[in-house]
Amino acid sequence: MTAAEGTERAPKIGSLVVDVRRNRIGEVMATTGGRLALRPPAGGREWEAFPCDVRPAIASDELRAKVTEVNDRSRRERGMA
Q1: Which pTM value belongs to this model?
Q2: CATH of region 3-80, choose from 1.10.3470, 2.30.30, 1.10.1060, 1.10.10
Q3: Percent of the chain at pLDDT exceeding 70
Q4: Concatenated DSSP letters for the chain?
């Protein structure tokens, strides 16, 4: 870990971030042991990421997450018909 990485602040719980290693959007659920617990905004399985591997989500990232959620919901509903 570099000196710059050690001074980085972890995002606040509840904020949306982009995990740049996995190209996924997640909501910060917790911070433990220098790692973040992230969960997809629409729910689902959590994963861990280091604070240095995430960036704050911008409006287009949030829109992408919402479109993904709507598409997933539509696919589930069609499968049940």
Answers
A1: 0.77
A2: 2.30.30
A3: 88
A4: --HHHHTPPPPPTT-EEEETTTTEEEEEEEEETTEEEEE-TT----EEE-GGGEEE--HHHHHHHHHHHHHHHHHHHHHH-
